[in-house]
Each structure stands twice: as structure tokens, then as C-alpha cells.
Amino acid sequence: MSRAEYDVIVIGAGSVGTPTALFLAQKGFKVLVIDRNPSPGQSSNKRAIGGLRATHSDPAKIRLGLRSLKIFSTWKETYGDDIEWLQGGYCFVAYREEEEKTLKSVLPVQKKYGLKIDWLEADELRKLLPDLNPRGLRGGTYSPEDGHASPLLAVEAFYRHALRAGAEFRFRENVRELVTEGGKISGVVTETGRYAAPVVINAAGAWAAEIARMAGMEIPVKPDSHEAAVTEPVKRFFDPMIVDLRPVKGSANYYFYQHATGQIIFCITPNPSIWGFDERETSEFLPMVSRRMIELMPRLQNIRVRRTWRGLYPMTPDGFPIVGWSKEVEGFLLAVGMCGQGFMLGPGVAELLTRLVAGQPGPDDEEILSYLSPYRNFVSEEKLK
Amino acid sequence: MIDNRLYKHPILPVEEKPLFTFYFQGKELKAREGETIASALFANGIRILSYHHRDGAPQGIFCANGQCAQCLVLADGFPVKSCMEFIRPGMKIEPVVGLPELPAVNPEEIPEFKPIEQLEFSVLIIGGGPAGLSAAIELGQRGVDCLLVDDKHRLGGKLVLQTHRFFGSVDAVFAGTRGIDIATRLENEIKKFPNVSVWLRSTALAVFSDKKVGILKEGTKYVLVKPKILLVATGAREKSLAFPGNDLPGVYGAGAFQTLVNRDLVKPTERLFIVGGGNVGLIAGYHALQAGIQVVGLVEVMPEVGGYKVHKDKLARLGVPILTSHTILSANGKDSVESVTIARVDEKFQLIPGTEKTIKCDTVLIAVGLDPVNEFYLKAREFDLPVYAAGDAEEIAEASAAIFSGKIRGLEIARALGVYTGEIPEDWYRTAEILKSRPGPTYSEQYPEKEEGVYPAIHCLQEIPCDPCSAVCPRKLIEVDRSDIRKIPVYYDEKDGKGCTGCERCVVFCPGLAITLVDYRKNPEFPEVTIPFEFLKETINPGDEVILVDISGQELARSRVNSVKSIKGNDRTILVKVSVPKAVARKVSGLRIQPEIKEIEEKYQSRIPDEAIICRCERVTAGEIRKLIREGVRDINEIKAITRAGMGPCGAKTCTPLVHRLFQEEGVPESEIIDQPKRPLFIEVPLGLFAGLEKQKETGNEPR
């Protein structure tokens, strides 16, 4: 068995773990990332559809989202890689009073924390999205600085720059044990190696609860399985991600956008949730989502669907991530329960984790961490899941 | 006006069908009823169908089988695979240039969604080729309710492309009958069973975890079928090959070629070059010659062709250069194929410098083997849906083997359903194994010693599963070991005191065209040799001088044709009779029809193998992937993430084997490679169909 010493071990080379490795390594930390897959982003990252927004309903996610957007949107000029970033914005559309109220109710918070977002009346929204079904359309929010990118290219870019910055990655290794000594974490054991570090970050996505349990912690993270699909590419005909929050039988919200390649990528939130790790394709998904999408945008009836897949949303009871130090095990840092937003929050969370490990908190970190604390009571509810 | 249609064919019937007008890039062109868009375009001399949206590269057909997506065109504004859609009167075809525009619709008009129909059957058979049809017959006979779906416009699978007489066993699998005729026989048989439903133009899209199979029914609506048992008889897809220029229009699969020529009766090329000496490549070459196409060469990288020797001999005798231990270096041309560069390889398959040759041609067929279409089988296994596979979907072999394996699976399924309680006969499995077997040892030529009377000279020297000669001899003078029909035939001079009468039946019936008749009776010094010939009768006439060749195509003599005979009921093979000196008479096994092929003078331009396209859909080159492999990438998912190889419309069907090949070339063991998962859908389908919208049915151009 190999033995090696590190400053930080990150468990999970996904949407959160990979950028975390990059930023830690850039700060000069000796980092090891362990993942059970053969390459980065192979669990939930590659199943993400690529939406990037700061349009959330709470200060923590808005701030992390804004920071992430900044990193994604400037990635090419900073690092040189094309990650298919496109600033298309986000539109949450409202066809019922209920959604209109919800969306308008969070606008003040969103604006307060620096989000560029406005309510567009139906006719303005139609100018932006001429193919949107106008019947019963009340309007919607539009946040032009949100966008989208390729999760696959982005995680690969994080990974390669992390390697260059000196981070190490061990793929195809399963964490079997977290080693603690006197209430302090001291390392990680896999089937092929023992690795020592005073700090271990749990970024294990849908498998985070299992990892936390190795440190004797119970954290309320469980995966909900969502199904998604991608179409053929067509000439660009709309820019923003469109989110419809109306719940119907079988699905809560659904959302879709036209990726930089011209392909439409779409996804639904199952209703009720499908708890567990089942990622096998179902026959219900396409008939369900296709009706909803065509009702909203009839032009979509002719676009040809290329591929479908399912991915896991590591959910928490209140829909907000869990980020913070363990009180029980010193040196054990949680960055889990991203609720399907690991990709869009990843770089922002990664910077936050880097500050925590370095012991150099930023001015807003205390507030952010209070919302995301592992020890909160989990009773509030995310309005824009 | 260009018209590349065949109006005469030595084997295939050419029906007179009405012509009608369609448009390509605004130009008025003629189509023949029953043509696909692709074949109509080829018939008009158009082989650049579109331009790739990533780099503007011209795109031609590749599989002509609905598997890849290279033949995309816009038909009346909608992107369609031109190889799968019928052309209709007045249709406006445009090449796809850049990304296609999604047709606009009135945003206020929500179409009416119908519920997605869900149907239950005891057995769902995917694929109506030799295996699927044979299984359906077994199940039909036993009253099992079956649904058979096939994505083509008629049943028969690849049988409908096969003009040659089949090898195999007369008893078990119609040996001696032409593939096209076997298709018709099986199709007629199926029609007898009301319990077997057949959906044509119906593509299976996915096997889902809830054990339902999504099917695009007749191209117009989406349905879900829940079978108790699934039989996957989806056949094979052609392997691709990486070489510079492999993406040029004019480089395509041998199956695609056979589809154009033998199904759609279009002559897509004047000068054809073939890569690969398996049965598929050899037969494609023969089909080309039958359609009046020059075959300027065939390369096979191995020291010997992999297909049946009789197929190779047929081609060699007709004058096709067969170059073993040769490989293709590049297909050359600006917008489409203009020539091919080949070279000799050593025993380690390494190029021998200085042996490069460039040969003028307009089309390169890739015939380098087949892969099973087994995605649905594997998914069903994963999801615990009881499933069987038959034919090429189970194991690549000849169509005769597919017929028999379908029969066995049919009975096995009947047994699993409890409607058949007997055992599956043990000898069925043995027959299946024999039919699947690869060519065996080759023996040297041996002919009867006597130079008198009349007898067959059998030029069949390699063990292959085949027995029609023994079945047709009225005096049973030709024997093939009944217990193992792979053994080569043995001729007995006489039985019960009776010898050969010169009835010619063995000459006509041998699928390999490997029997001639030598008749010394009129003139012992210049015996008459009867040669089987499967070309248009008007191409050969008494008095014509012909070059007579031995089994491997070497010239033996020149002679004039005495007579040309076609016998009623002898199924389109004609017999050519020539007189030759007795010294060579027994060795004559065919006549050359093709003049010698000259290579062109053009200086060979070395091209970089890294230019070869691996992923046709996303235009990913060998160089891009090789670079990643050399960096240490072993996960094909990562290659996909970085390069997009495998993200295109074909669903990684074409590039996956090529990526494996690159790993192999880089010395990476197969065990280190991580494959990408296969996901639905099998082909791209408009979103509206999943919502219960129905597409208008095609009208006006269904074949009658």
C-alpha cells in the first residue's frame, strides 16, 4: 500500500472537488483528490445540463453563484480553455398567479445581493422569447448575466489546471475509511492506499452521507434521480435558460436552454422525488417532458431528441447546500448536498473552501456559512429549486 | 442529363416505375418511384449531400442503413436521413449548410397530444432479416402472438441485397437459392400467420428499465411495447476504418453500396475500389461487376482474404486485382474521391516504403468486417427483461447461419413460453455451428484423370458449409459429407454403372460458380467447357473472343464462344460454352470480363494518418484522440468530454470500435480502456412524437 502525506485530501473529483483542488493547489497546498471513477466528473457532473445562475433566493447561494459566474464567464480569457460559456441569461416564466407571486417575492433579496434581474411583463418577455406560448403568459423574471457552459469541458479544464498547479488525483480508488486520531482527522484509506492529511474535504456528491458516516457523522443528504436529454443542434433561436416552476403530475419544474453548440438540453424535477441511486432510463420521461415543453414553446415539436440520461441530485431537506467544518471531527470539511447545483456553485464553493482551509475568511463568509451550516435546523424552503 | 439508374440487371428484376419531379437546390430532377432521397440524388449524379456544420466538410452517404447520420439533408425544410426517407413528388431537397433552422410554428397553436399507446405482446422481435423472420415463423406456427418490427420499407433485411445463390445447407437453409428470393419466401411464409404482426418502417428506439420498448411506429408515431420476451435480431453494422480521406464523399460501406445498387437499382460509381477481402467485400465486388461497374482493385491487409475462396476466385477470374498484404493509405480528392493510395505491408502489418501505388477511382468501399448491433440485447439484460439474440446481433456469420439461428431462438422462445414442450433437436445446434464456421483448410486442385466422356470439373477447394451440388446431381455422383457439409465435394465417376450425362445442373446450381463441365465427346482434342455466367446475356455472344482463366484468374487460353445458353427455370445463370485445348480444359474455370487495370502516374503524396476522421458526426480526428491517449487518458468518457467524439447523432456506433483500435495501436491493453455507456435513443426522433403527436404518413411513393 502506498503512503503519502498531503495538506488536504478532497474526496470526489466532481463539480465541487475538482475546482477546489485547483484553488487549493494555486494557494500552495499539497492536495490529493480521490475518486472512484476513472476520470474527473464521471458521476453527476457530466449529467448536469450546464445551467449557470446566480438567480437564487438567499444571500449565500446568490453570492456563491455570482462568484461562480464570474469564474466561468472569464475562464477563457484567464485560462484559455473554451468551456462553451454563453451568457444567455435565465428566464423563470409565470403562467399562473402563484408563480408570479413567488418570483416577485424573491426579487428584492435578489437585487439586494447584487443580482441583475428584473420582472418582464408578458409582451416584453415575448420580445425576448418570440416562440414562447403567449396564452396565459403573465410575465417572468429575466437575469441576463446568468448563462450556461459545458460541465464536461469545465471539469476537464479545472482538472488539467489543477494538475498543472501541482494537485494529485487518484482515480479508480474507493474511500474505505476515514482515519481519526483523538477527534482529529488524519487521513484516508482506500483499497490500494493510505493517505495522510490534517484536512479532508467531503465533496462526494450523492455519496456524501456514506463518506460522512465514516467519520461518525450523519448528514441529511440523499440523492433524487432526475432525467434529462439533449437534442440535435439547430440554428440559435433563443438564448436564456427557460424555467417553468408549475408542478404537474409526475414532474415539479422543468427547464431547458439552447447550448452553445445549438443543442437543446432539458431536464425535469420528478414529483414526487425518486429517491435513491437508480440512474436507469425510464419510459415515462420523454412523453412527460415533451408535452410540457411543446405547450410552452410549440416550435420545439420538431426538434429531434438525440440522447437521454439520468443523474443524481444530492438533496438536503431544505434545498440548500451543506458547507462547513465538522464540529465532531476536527479537520473534516463538508461541501455536500448541492441539490443539483454543484456545477453552478462549484467554483464559488471551491474558493470558499480554500479560504476556510487557509484560515482567511472573506467578509461575507460568516453570513454565507450561517445559511449553509451543517448544524442548521433545515426548516426553511428554497423557492427556486 | 445524368441518369445513373439501372434499367437492366442480369439477376434483379427491373420494374418499370413512373418517374416524377423533385428539386435539389432548386434544380428540377427526376426520381423513380420507390427511391429513397439518397438513391434519387445518386441517380442524378449527386453525391455531396450536405456540408458539416463544424467545418463545412462535404458529406456523402456512409452506411445507407439508418445507423449513422452522415446523409442528412433538408427535405421540405426538415432534416432527415436521406437513406431512410422516400423521395416524394415535388419534394424540395436542400443540403444542410451550417446548422439547420428549426421550422417556425405559430406559438399560440398547441397541437393535440394523444396518449402514447402501450401494447403487450408475448414476443417482440426487433429486426425482420433472416434471423428475425425465421424466428417469427417458428413462433407463428405455434400460435404465439408476436410483433416484428423493422426499420426498412420491406422485410428481408440484407437478404434483399443478395443476388447470389446462398451457401449452406439445402436441407436447413435454402442453399442454392438467391438471397433476394429467400427474402420473398420468408416474407410470404410470415404472412400466413395472423398471430404475427409486422410493422415496417418502425425503428426500436430504446429498451427502458420498466421493461418497455419504445418504438417509432411506421415513422409516424411513438408507441411503447411491453413484451414477455424480446428477441433482438438487429443484424450487424459495418466497421469503419481510419485513413486520411476516409470522410470524403465516395467513401462508404459495402452494405451502403449494395443498398444503392441492388435494392434501389442505382449505379453510384464507375470505378470502384474495395478495402477488405471478407465475404462482404468480395460479394460487393461481384455485385458491382453485375451492375456494369469497373472494380479497379481490392486490398486485404492479411496475407489471404478472409472470405470464401470461391468468392475471391470469382472476382479474380473476372479480372479484379486482389491485393493481399496490402493496405489503404489514403483516399484522395478535393470534394470527393478521385483516387486511392495503397501500399504493401509486411508480416507485422507495417508499411513497406516504396510500394505505394495510386489508383484512379471514384468510390472506395469499406468492407473491413461487421459488429453486432447488440445495444438492445445488452440493455434488456441489464434491465432483466427476458431476451434472446439471433443472427449477426448474436454472432457475426453468414446469412444462412442467421436463418438457422433464428429458427433455433424461435423454438427456444416457444419453449420458454410453454407452447412447445419438446426438446430442441440436438443436431440443430450442430448444424448452427457448422453454418457459422469460418472457411477451413484449402486443398490443391485435383481433377479426374480421364480425358473422355463428360464430367464436372470441381474448382471448390476450401472447406465451407455448402452442399447444393450434391443435392442437384440426379445420379448422386457428387457427394458432400452429410454429417459435415464443410467437407469439399467428391465426384464419383459412376454409381451403379451410370456416369455423368452432362445435365449441367451442378454447373448452374453451385453458389460459388465453381463447377464447370468438360465434354470430350465431340472433340477429344478440343473439349467443350461449360462455364456458369451471371451477367447480362447480351454482353456475350457466340463468336466473341474470350480470355479463359484458371481458378485464380491466370490466363490459360483465348477462344471463341461456341454458344450461350439460358435454360428456363435455371434461375438467371447462363451457360457459356467454349472449346479449348485438352491440356487446359479441366483447369478452365471462368472467363475474364474486365480489362487490365492501370495505375495512374500521379506522384504519391504522403498524408498524415492523424488526419483520419474517427468520429464522423463531430469531425474528430485520429490525431486529437491519439494525443489524449498518449497523455494517459484511458476513459473513453473523458475523450468524449474533451473532443465530443461519440456525442453525435449516430450515438457512438461508428467511432467506438475505431477508438479502441487507436488504443490498440498505442499499445494500451483492452482491459485498461473504459467504455462509455450506451444510452437511448437509437436514432434521433422529433420531440413532438413523444408527446403523442403523429407525423403525416408518407404518401405517393410507396413501392407497389
CA(first)-CA(last) distance of chain A: 43 Å
The structural domain count of chain B equals: 4
**Percent strand of chain B:** 15-25%
Can you tell me the CATH superfamily of the largest domain in chain A?
A: FAD/NAD(P)-binding domain
How many H/I helical runs of chain A? Answer: 10
Shape of chain B: globular
- CATH class identity of the largest domain in chain A: Alpha Beta
- Range of helix content of chain A: 25-40%
In spatial order, strands of the major sheet of chain A run: 6-7-5-15-16-17-14-18
Polypeptide structure, described:
The complex is a heterodimer of chains A (385) and B (704). Chain A is an alpha/beta fold and 385 residues long. Chain A folds into 2 domains: 2-50 and 152-220 and 318-372, FAD/NAD(P)-binding domain (3-Layer(bba) Sandwich); 88-145 and 222-315, D-Amino Acid Oxidase, subunit A, domain 2 (D-Amino Acid Oxidase, Chain A, domain 2, 2-Layer Sandwich), CATH 3.30.9. Chain A has helices spanning 17-26, 59-73, 75-79, 97-112, 122-128, 151-164, 208-214, 285-296, 342-358, 365-372; strands at residues 2-5, 8-11, 31-34, 51-52, 90-94, 118-121, 139-143, 147-148, 168-170, 175-181, 184-190, 193-196, 199-202, 222-233, 241-244, 250-258, 263-271, 304-315, 322-325, 332-336. In chain A, the strands form 4 sheets. Chain A has an 8-stranded mixed sheet, sandwiched between helices. Chain A has a 6-stranded mixed sheet with strand order 9-3-2-13-20-19, sandwiched between helices. Chain A is globular, with a radius of gyration of 20 Å. The N and C termini of chain A lie far apart (43 Å). Chain B has 4 domains: 19-100 and 240-366, 3-Layer(bba) Sandwich (FAD/NAD(P)-binding domain); 117-236 and 372-436, 3-Layer(bba) Sandwich (FAD/NAD(P)-binding domain); 454-592, no CATH class; 609-672, BFD-like [2Fe-2S]-binding domain (Arc Repressor Mutant, subunit A), CATH 1.10.10.1100. In chain B, the strands form 10 sheets. In chain B, strands 8, 9, 10, 11, 12, 13 and 24 form a 7-stranded mixed sheet that branches. Chain B has a 7-stranded antiparallel sheet with strand order 25-30-31-34-33-32-35. In chain B, 22% of the residues lie in helices and 25% in strands. The radius of gyration of chain B is 26 Å and the shape is globular. Chain B has 17 helices and 38 strands. With 704 residues, chain B is α/β, with parallel strands linked by helices.
